[in-house]
Amino acid sequence: MDWETVRLLAEASLELGRLDGAGALVPNPDLFVGMYVRQEAVLSSQIEGTQCTLEDVLRFELDASAVSEPEEIAEVVNYVGAMNYGLERLEDFPLSLRLIREIHERLMKGVRGSALTPGEFRRTQNWIGPAGGTLLNASFVPPPVPDMNDALGDLEKFLHETERLPALIHFGLVHAQFETIHPFLDGNGRIGRLLIAFLLCHRKILRRPLLYLSLYFKQHRQEYYDRLTAVRNDGQWEPWIKFFLKGVAEVSRSATSTAQAILALQQEHRQLTLQRVSNAALSQLLLDLLLQYPLISVRMVESRLNCAFVTANKLVEQFTGLGLLREITGGLRNRQYEYKPYLELFER
Asked: Where, in this chain's numbering, is ATP bound (predicted)?
């Protein structure tokens, strides 16, 4: 390991520690972790060609019948479900090939690629190349099935190798190995990126899933592919690891900034609503709800806060008057509202 790698490892570890600390400072951080997960799902899916946005996903969750291109959005919603399922399973089940297959099944269920054996490792050769291309003009051909099975066995052992390598270098190697093995007929990129988050939580590097590298991979997509190709063709591991560590440091800084901004926003809006909203207790419950679901309707508030419709409507009107909510449907019926100041923290 050269000195530049040592420096990048130290920087990434420091920024990751700051992120974990920032997450611990926010009251009830589990309220907003779901937004990080959704954002990662959107960005990871965009790398694979999906065009939907974070707001599209939130609209779909609120009312699936009111969105266009529901198939694309369903892919992102599946990603969120696969992430949450995996994190929950890791509490009492080891990170293993079996768990990876289970996560893949949830990722691909009922969406594009669902006919390509979800939850099962491939039994035929696959390749990466231009649309409509063949094995002959492929840009990358993963190992054939017998070699793939051997490589997966080695990967599973390596997942639990915790003594010889610094954790972040270990995670970078796992991601590159998985993407090179390419064990599924579809969904390999998304599963490989999910693995990074699972490893961070499984090894207790982060107490909550706040770090996702899809933004970095998307912003540097060509270098991401080039670095993986150089590993596969020429065994150039160190440039890949440096690229990966830079991403961890960069995204950790950004996620820390977002967590700190959420804390400041939370404090400011709690104080504002305590002073200006007639029902102080319900106003605080609504703020908590908005951290989880920044797109709401009055009916949703009525249901989630277990209050009368008239009460929910008045509460939403007062939040709108304070500039915390903005009506986005422009209709007299079935109106939807967004918690715009909060959404802007993720959109920026």
From this structure: 48, 182, 186-193, 224-225, 233
Same fold, 3-255 and 277-347: no
> Residue 188 annotated as binding?
yes
Catalytic residue from among 170, 175, 182, 269: 182
- The answer to whether 2 is annotated as binding is no
Residue whose entry in the numeric block shows the structure tokens 């079935």: 334
Cα–Cα distance measured from residue 96 to residue 102, given in angstroms and rounded to the nearest whole number? 10
Q: Which residue has the tokens 């003594």?
A: 163
How far is it, in rounded angstroms, from Cα 319 to Cα 328? Answer: 14
| Residue 182 among the catalytic residues | yes
How confident is the prediction along the chain (348 residues), in pLDDT tens digits per residue?
799 999 999 999 999 999 999 888 877 878 888 898 999 999 999 998 888 889 999 989 988 777 766 788 988 999 999 999 999 999 989 999 999 999 999 999 988 776 778 999 999 999 888 777 778 788 889 999 999 999 999 999 999 988 889 999 999 999 999 999 999 999 999 999 999 999 999 999 998 888 889 989 999 999 999 999 999 999 999 999 999 999 999 999 999 999 999 999 999 999 999 999 989 999 999 999 999 999 999 999 999 999 999 999 999 999 999 999 999 987 667 889 999 999 999 887
128 is in an annotated binding site: no
Q: State how far the Cα of 192 lies from the Cα of 112, in Å rounded to an integer.
A: 18
Q: Can you tell me the distance from the alpha carbon of 333 to that of 118, in angstroms, rounded to the nearest whole number?
A: 40
The tokens describing 284, both together, are 């605080």
Q: Which CATH number fits domain 277-347: 1.10.10.10, 1.10.645.10, 1.25.40.10, 3.40.50.360?
A: 1.10.10.10
172 carries a ligand binding annotation: no
